[in-house]
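Regression test attached.
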Amino acid sequence: MAEFFIGLVIGLAAIQLLLLVYLVLWKKRTLGTENRKAAMLEELKPDFLTYLEGGEEEPAMPENEKLRTAVLEGLLSELVADQKDERFRGKISSTAERHLAAVYKKRLTAGTWAERVNALYFIEDFRIHSLRRLVFSRLEQLPADDEECRQSLRVCTALQEPDVIGFLISRQESFSTGLLKELLRRFDEPLLHEVKRRLEADDGETENLMLAFLTTCGEQQSAPFFLFVEGKLADRRKEVRLKALRSLVSYGRLSDPALIAPFFSSEHWEERMYAAKITGACGLGGYRDALLSLFSDPVWWVRFSAADNALKFETGPALLTRIAEQHEDPFARDIARHMVTRKGGDSVA
Amino acid sequence: MPDGWLLASFDVLSWLVIAYMIGAGLVYLVLFLVASPKIRRERKLNRHEQIEELSGDNGTYPVSVLVPVFNEEAGVLSTVRSLLALNYPEFEVVVVNDGSADGTGRKMIDSFNMVPIDLAVREQFKTAPIVRAYKSERHPNLYLLEKENGGKADALNAGINFSHYPYFAAIDGDSILERDALLKTMKPIIDSNGRVTVTGGTVRIANGCKVVQGKVEKIRLPKRPLEIMQIVEYFRSFLIGRLGLSRVNILLIISGAFGVFEKNRVVKVGGYRTGTIGEDMELVVRIHRSLKDEKSSERIEYIQDPVCWTEAPSTVASLKAQRIRWQRGLAETLWIHRDMLFNPKYRGVGMFSLPYFLFVELLSALFETIGYFIIIGGLVFSIADPEIAFIVLLVMVLYGSLISALAVLLEEWTYHKYPDISSVIVLYVYALSETFWFRILMNFWRLQGLLYSFRKKAEWGDMERKGVFSEE
């Protein structure tokens, strides 16, 4: 019996030792490759920058495909960040098309999961349009909760693939509002109009894409969709109304202040809270008394928002000081006192 | 005759210990096998690109970072600096000073230009009174709550009461976060549209590393053997244990050093339980209980990326105190939730996870200590069969050293955070030595903790801080 256990321990220890040797050798090689790559990046960067800024001759790239790909990815990633110039971006894109499109195509069709996802990240960053249809064609097979599916959607939207709108509408319940917002932000205006048209046509119960659309419009203060957002204040669905209210807080304007009057006495506390927020965001002095009435609201968040937004009026600090000292409701006094001194931080949107 | 009985009893006990060790080792192996496909799959994933999108994104949820502190003047400034430098679109930092007797509060006030504010706190939990609240004039998202001493759980509850955002991160005052820690940890919550209700990430030991202004600038090994061994131990715990449990949604521990929670869920289950020692684990078990009671599909998830660095005890006395406290906390949580043990209603948590923590994490100290007596009794005093005693020793090497060595290899295969080859070899050799000294120490302390768990008293613990974060 003892022999068996001796054998087991020695056997496992020997296997581990082999693994250790392998990992040490692998680490040595990896460190060498990393150093080579870093040196090459430093060396090529000035010439490459000149080339991307309008130079005629492309700097010579390493012969080895793996190293060339890694160096190009490093260079282009660094240069594409914060780069707004369209010509420059175009040249990055054409360089990537020339050197990387074939590599990524191979990875998308035959690579491991990590290789495919990494390829998708770079396809989006470098705007490799030739791979747009390939990425879209693979979408149907991917599970919605997988990063590969999410990143494929980011690629399709960034590259303005029109068919992806239908896909999003049919599968919208599978995706988070956060992801849908991310995707909508990537669309150009013509495709956003198409999304709006499809949302108007589909008045069903599925609302994820609608919620994301309303929020995105507000966050981007998108003028062409302002009236669409405002119109949703009258929607039958509470969530849609709330998102429209939130969006209008971001817009900071209303075409008609009377539109929010009913929300001050809504049965839903969230709507009362947003009424307070819109009053502050749009500077609606006419609602000053309605706002003050919310200082005594039974819900803390509503009181908080009322006080927070009262501060945005010119006379806000004096008003809050008076409430803190004289108001008959202790809750109102409490929140006003807090708000007078609490200048940092923002309330929950 | 009595000799015969004694020998036979030793034999039975020995085989029991052997069976236990093999069983526990197999559990580790199963957890490793459960964890390895995900580790393998994501090994070459570009981590930077993965979160790049979120960093400037409005789609993230705002987070309140709560830092309960008690006598943490050595490390609190570094911790707060690392938090203020976080790469996350919207967050606030709330430091809760739980009646420290040292200069923790004063240091905060002086260093960050903090001025008093009045409070209108939503009192979701009763806590010890808040004496004073401050906000920073320099950083609009930094707050300090000065409260009377009530324990760590009480301090966290006070922080939740004060916090303004729908998610909160609880972080120890002796830990620092990587710049992208919140992005990485919030990603599962964002991606799942809130179906993930709690997340935690891998915690690493910062002892030995070069830390400047709350940022780990250079990763290197510490000099003291005790500290090196704790690094190995963390690899084993995080890379093998937690990831495996998380994969099947039965993870019971989100490290107190760093975890992110959905505030509504925590409020719903009643917040941190005061008067306990292992408040972090107890809360997670209670959340599991509520999820199962509600038949909710929400998840508790652990991300494998190293996101948090913490200061490990560097002296025998502080390490002993920590281990006794951990063991007591574990025993207490298991006792509080004993009705979930082997209860099919709680599925994996009741049928696997809690029994795992009871038999493998809590009682292993008992079995291993019995093993030491068998080895000494058999090999030195011949009161047990020497061959069986030798087998017990071999199985202990298998269970203690070889699994830890495997964790070192796993770390190198996945994250290879230590930049030089010599560190890997040092860690491996230390892992092999674990059975012969470190584990013996741990087991005696853990056994002591088990005995102490019958006492009822919660405390912050008396860990001596060197302040590794402020040395350079």
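Expected vs. actual: identical. Chain B is about 50% helix and 15% strand.
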